[in-house]
Each structure stands twice: as structure tokens, then as C-alpha cells.
Amino acid sequence: MVILKRPLRFIIATFLACLPLMSFANQEVDSAHGHEVVAEGHHEGAHAEPTDVKSKIKAFIGHHVLDSHDFSLTQDDETGEAWGFPLPVILWDNGLQVFSSAKFHHGKEVAESNGNYYAINHHDGKIYKTDASGTITENEETGFPTNVRPIDFSITKTVVSIIAAALLMFFLFTSLAKSYAKNGGIAKGAGRIFEPIVLYIRDEIAIPNIGVKHYKRYMSYLLTIFFFVLFLNIFGLTPFGINATGNLTITFSLAFLTFLITNLTANKNYWGHIFWMPGVPKPMRIILAPIELLGVFIKPFSLMIRLYANIFAGHIVLMSIIALMFIFKSWIGSSLSFGLAFVLSIVEILVAFLQAYIFTMLSALYFGAAVEEHHHEEGHH
Fold first, then answer.
1. How far apart are CA 238 and CA 233, in angstroms?
2. Which strand (E) or helix (H) includes residue 99?
């Protein structure tokens, strides 16, 4: 049977667009079931279990954007049993504590390791040290747990997605490099898909913004950051509840790398324009210097916030629209919600590429400004 290319492409595009719709099957189990959360000075349960549909949906969306110590793919509402697979928990608390997150039973029970007891807090998904009953005490004023929090090196969903993206990039581009060597510079296999993107980043991003003389120094980083952000964004649209680029820690780390590379490779002209800007009166240079120095830190901050805010907001909006199908108890409302969610899912796929492009483009702009060579004399300004 021969499948035409156009119908096949339509089927693939429809499947990709529907992936986020299936993410509602990734039911995060309420981690406050198995242990008590009390406020300081009180011994009653501080947080009631959501009972109405809207509260449950709100709690689920909150859990969806958080990191987790296991993958929960489905959940039986009647029995409360969830199906998924655990991840390793690695803690430093009076020595190394290593055990499976299955001990938490999706956050419903207390885990014991070498005589120490740990529980997952319902609100932030973090692991805290507790007693055998799993009591997490919260401060009445701040609402933050007062329990000791061990140093956590666990392999969470975000870490798994980062490792998966790194391995995928390694194997894809290793095979692309080998195909170049074997076929006289002609890509074969999966490399054909990524070769145009690599050339686009080189010819349309790196060279115009950095220059022919210096662009090769930054190409490896620009390619890495583009595909790394792209793959993490795509993973975030799967039903596994991954939200790596919607995590402020991840976007901070990526922006910090751009900040380090920009300032460690900058030439004297770059620093000269910051601390003693040419072409302006000397009294103004004193005023402009702290403003320009502040801009050095604002640029990576904007990188961090832009990627985080767009991906995080996209998850919230998409999950909220999907949730309307469970709130509307009519076929008209549910059908409209499904159609809107489907269109938004396609938009989110475009956003995944767009945010990777913007992050790479701005990084290239910063690198170009750092190595730009100025040929002028102050007396002519």
C-alpha cells in the first residue's frame, strides 16, 4: 500500500498537534494524601483536599508545571492508583541517601532510608525530612515548611528530559558528521532534516550578527543552544508532563552561559564603550557608565525571563483550555474547547521553534557586540 506524501504529512502534523491534548492523562497525584501538613502551633490538617471540579483542575495544572520525582501517566479516580514509573532519589543528609521514588507511592506515603524519614510537600514538590508520621510543619506567616530540607541531587523529570535531549543531540549530529565524512560532504539519513537548520543558523544568525572573522568561535555554542532549547520545548508538548524550559532554574543556567561567554570573550572596545563611551562629553560618560554596566546584566536577565515566561504561560493557557472540556458538560462547549486547544497546540509547536530561534539570535547579537571592532577617532565625534 502506497501512502501519498501529503496525507502522511497531514497525519503526522495532526498527531503532533494532539500530543499536548493527551497530557491531561498525566495525572499528578496529590502528594498530601499520605502525610499531614500542619501549621506551627496547630495539629489539624492545614490544607483540605480539593473536591469540586474547578479546584481539582486548578491543582492539577499547578502540579503539571512543577518538576516531579516520578512519571505518572494515568490515574484511577476511584481507587487513587496511578500508573507510571519511579525515578532515583539521591539526597545528602548525614551521608548519601539513595532510594527509589516508588517509596513515596506518588507522594502518598513517607519514605524511609537508613533510619531517616522523608516526605514530598504538596505545594512545591520538594522533599523534606520528617518524623515517621510524615508531618510537614508550615510557618503560619510565610506558609513555607519549617522542616529540614536535605540537599537534593535526585534524577527528576526535568533531569531526565535534559539527559534525553543531550543524548538525542549527540547521536543525531554524530551521525550527521559521519555521513559528511563518508559521502564527500553530503548528508544522508536523519542528517538531511537538520542540515538546512544548521546552515540557516550559520548563514542567517551567526555570520550577520557576529561577522565572518569571529563567527566560527561561537558556532558550536549557538548550534548547541538552539537544538537544546528546541528539543526541550518539544518534549514539553508530549503527554509526559515535562516543563524544563518553563523552569526558571533551567532558563537561568542557559542565560548565565551566554552571559559568561559574552563577557569572557569581549574585546577592549566592548569594555571601553561600557565604562568610557567614546563620542560623548566626558561628564556624560560618568553618568552613562553605570547605566551601560547595568545593561550587561539586564541582557541575560531578559533572555532568562523571555524563554521562561513564554513556555510557562503556554503550558498554563493550553492546560486551562483543555480543562474547559471537563467543565462544560455539553457537547457544544467541549467541542469548542477541543477545537481551540487543537489550534493552540499547533501554535505551541511554532512557539517551540520561535523561542529557540530568539534565544539563539539574541545570544549571537550579544557575541557580535562583544567582538565588534571599532575604527574611529574620538575627535571626529
1. 9
2. strand 96-100
